């Protein structure tokens, strides 16, 4: 068949896809969700979507599985090209069969060849049970590409429904996972399988909802209250990575001098420091609800994207624990892989002391921070805001492990340990002095950052209100930094 008939046939097939689209929308709407195509349209710039392999399909019993449950294509976000796959829950629960996997794998190869980010819109019950081991093989092919392209192209997973099995392992291998509150879940096995295997009835939301993964397991880096907000956040993430040369807005002028509380033990929110340094409204926090004692996120500084790592004295006095270590190391490694300079805002009394943390492996986890900073070859700058004690001072981007510049605010403290412990040991024989007097003496004699500046461990003590200006200048000095890296297959990072 060719000519007019072929064209008519083609048009009929296209019309059928259109007609089915309306049914799909209805089915998804019933669950408070959008269809696979609607999602793509909401995510991308208008009219920028080009779809591939629309006619690739699978089958189940005697039923044809249109698209085999996934659509794939290329579009733009703020004019920047991206590759997107979007799983269709209305086709066998978005489960992954042989063709489904083949389409995603092909798209991943295309994204790597094009050198553009890959965004997966996930809504899938995992390996298609009826396709058995062919489905497992399909996941294996996707995982292999997740790993092969890790550090080559950014990979983002958006979870938009109840995702199970392989449908969560692949996102776990990507750089960022975003979940929608109340409508998306991630679990290795869903509630029905858990019930069948163990007899335990558990709600999907408790087993793997957005709140649990964002605040406890750390599997979700970002959350949104709706699909609309989810796509906005992905667009912001992609846009942030692209340098901006116009409409750069400095933060509102507020003096940082009075920002720190009068008493050195009083807490304050480091977010205020961040927003008074970066371009206005440019911060996108990653892992906002997880390990809140440490803040990480992307922002613009004079139009350029930087990754920010900052202690937050407001939560657990900003101490570094297991989860904060993992969160920090993973973020640094993303920044380094994709050439985003790193800024550290430091106010830390140390690693979290205690039996529970030691038993759970604080040494192993904390070592990841040292490894990640020492390994990162992007421009790296630290500003010590109030204090940097002991191992945490060394680990959090000190000059010794490779910071390009370290600055400190006046009156900040850098010392081998906190004044409480040190003063008790050093001045134990001066019983006539109060604890407070001893600590003040220690502060003045050893801990004030001017001692670190004298030893050239700090490159300058800067006026708080000059921080933004100094950082813009410093990052521009080292913009084209090149460090030769020892040739090796790869290091062996503590995990
Ligand atoms: C085939 C599936 C499926 C699957 C869902 N469906 N999951 N079909 N294989 N894995 C189908 C259902 O049969 C149903 O078809 C439709 O999708 C919608 O599913 P429901 O159960 O009605 O929806 P809901 O109540 O919303 O529950 C969604 C769900 C649940 C939580 C995802 O379906 C579920 O628990 N599925 C199994 C999840 C799971 O344990 N997967 C692990 C697979 S093994 P009809 O025709 O009725 O509409 C795996 C291993 C990979 O992935 C390991 C790699 C290392």
From TrEMBL:
Top-level taxon of origin: Bacteria
GO molecular function, one term: propionyl-CoA carboxylase activity
GO cellular component, one term: acetyl-CoA carboxylase complex
Record domain CoA carboxyltransferase C-terminal: where: 251-487
Domain annotation CoA carboxyltransferase N-terminal: ranges: 3-253
Leader sequence residues: none
InterPro entries for the chain: AccD/PCCB, AcCoA_carboxyl_beta, ClpP/crotonase-like_dom_sf, COA_CT_C, COA_CT_N
Region (Disordered): 1-31
A matching Pfam family: Carboxyl_trans
Protein name per UniProt: Acyl-CoA carboxylase subunit beta
Organism: Alkalicoccobacillus porphyridii
Taxonomy of the source species: Bacteria, Bacillati, Bacillota, Bacilli, Bacillales
């Amino acid at each position: 068949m060719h000519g007019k008939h072929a064209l008519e046939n083609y048009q009929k097939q296209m019309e059928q896809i259109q007609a089915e689209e309306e049914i799909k929308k209805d089915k998804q709407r019933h669950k408070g969700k959008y269809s696979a195509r609607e999602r793509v349209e909401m995510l991308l710039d208008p009219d920028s979507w080009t779809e591939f392999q629309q006619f690739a399909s699978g089958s189940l019993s005697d039923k044809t599985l249109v698209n085999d449950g996934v659509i794939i294509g290329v579009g733009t976000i703020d004019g920047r090209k991206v590759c997107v796959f979007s799983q269709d829950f209305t086709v066998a629960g978005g489960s992954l069969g042989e063709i489904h996997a083949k389409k995603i794998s092909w798209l991943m190869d295309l994204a790597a060849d094009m050198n553009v980010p890959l965004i997966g819109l996930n809504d899938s019950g995992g390996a298609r049970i009826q396709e058995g081991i062919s489905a497992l093989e399909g996941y294996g092919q996707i995982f292999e590409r997740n790993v092969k392209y890790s550090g080559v192209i950014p990979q983002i997973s958006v979870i938009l429904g109840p995702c199970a099995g392989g449908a969560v392992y692949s996102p776990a291998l990507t750089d960022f996972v975003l979940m929608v509150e109340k409508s998306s879940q991630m679990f290795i096995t869903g509630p029905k399988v858990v019930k069948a295997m163990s007899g335990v009835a558990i709600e999907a939301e408790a087993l793997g909802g957005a709140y649990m993964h964002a605040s406890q397991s750390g599997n979700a880096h970002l959350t949104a209250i709706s699909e609309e907000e989810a796509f906005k956040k992905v667009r912001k993430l992609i846009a942030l990575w692209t340098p901006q040369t116009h409409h750069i807005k400095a933060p509102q002028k507020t003096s940082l001098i009075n920002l720190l509380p009068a008493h050195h033990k009083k807490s304050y929110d480091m977010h205020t420091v961040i927003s008074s340094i970066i371009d206005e409204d440019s911060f996108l926090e990653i892992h906002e609800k997880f390990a809140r004692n440490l803040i990480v996120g992307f922002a613009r500084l004079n139009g350029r994207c930087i990754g920010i790592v900052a202690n937050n004295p407001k939560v657990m006095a900003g101490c570094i624990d297991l989860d904060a270590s993992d969160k920090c190391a993973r973020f640094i490694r993303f920044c380094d892989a994709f050439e985003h300079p790193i800024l550290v805002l430091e106010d830390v009394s140390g690693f979290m002391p205690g039996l529970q943390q030691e038993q759970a492996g604080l040494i192993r986890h904390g070592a990841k921070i040292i490894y990640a900073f020492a390994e990162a070859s992007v421009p790296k700058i630290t500003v010590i805001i109030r204090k940097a004690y002991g191992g945490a001072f060394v680990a959090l981007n000190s000059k010794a492990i490779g910071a390009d510049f370290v600055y400190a605010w006046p009156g900040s403290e850098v010392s081998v340990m906190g004044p409480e412990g040190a003063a008790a040991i050093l001045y134990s024989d001066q019983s006539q002095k109060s604890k407070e007097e001893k600590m003040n003496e220690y502060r003045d004699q050893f801990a004030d950052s001017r001692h670190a500046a004298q030893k050239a461990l700090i490159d300058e003590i800067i006026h708080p209100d000059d921080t933004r200006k100094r950082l813009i200048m410093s990052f521009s000095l080292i913009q084209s930094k090149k460090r030769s890296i020892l040739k090796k297959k790869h290091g062996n990072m503590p995990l």
